[in-house]
Write a structure and sequence with these properties.
The chain is mainly α. It has one domain. The protein is 40% helix and 0% strand. 13% of the residues are buried.
C-alpha cells in the first residue's frame, strides 16, 4: 500500500501525455491536442492514397481498413516513443520500405503528431 502523506497540496501526478502537456504549458508551446480518433481518420486517408498490392498490410486492409489503420498508427506512435526517427537503416528488412510513404510528413500523410512525434518535442522549443 502506498505511503499516506499528510499534505499533498501542490503535488502533480501525471502520466507521459500529461507530463508532455505540462512541459508544453510551462515552455509556452501551443498545445496541439489532436484526438486519437481524428488522427486515425487522417491516417486512414493516408493509407488509402498509398495502399498497393505489395504492401505487407494490403490483404488485411482490404478486409478491415479501420482496424489496420488503428494498428499501424499505434505501432508508429510506439516506435516514436521508443526513439524512432521516421527513417529505417539501409539494412532494414524490405517490408520496412512500405512505411516510408506513411511517415508523418504533410506531403505524404496528414495524420497529426502523436504523443512522441518530433513535432511535439519540447526540447526543440
Amino acid at each position: 500500500m502506498p505511503e499516506l502523506r499528510a499534505d499533498s497540496l501542490g503535488d502533480i501526478s501525471v502520466g507521459p501525455n500529461g507530463f508532455l502537456r505540462l512541459l508544453e504549458t510551462q515552455l509556452g508551446i501551443p498545445a496541439r491536442d489532436i484526438s486519437f480518433t481524428a488522427r486515425l481518420i487522417q491516417y486512414l486517408g493516408c493509407i488509402d492514397r498509398v495502399n498497393h498490392a505489395a504492401a505487407f498490410y494490403h490483404e488485411s486492409y482490404q478486409a478491415d481498413p479501420f482496424s489496420v489503420a488503428r494498428t499501424l498508427l499505434q505501432w508508429r506512435d510506439q516506435w516514436y516513443l521508443a526513439g524512432w526517427t521516421g527513417r529505417f537503416a539501409g539494412d532494414a528488412p524490405a517490408g520496412c520500405g512500405t512505411w516510408q510513404p506513411l511517415k508523418p510528413s504533410r506531403r505524404h500523410c496528414g495524420a497529426g503528431p502523436g504523443p512522441a512525434h518530433p513535432a511535439r518535442d519540447p526540447a526543440a522549443a
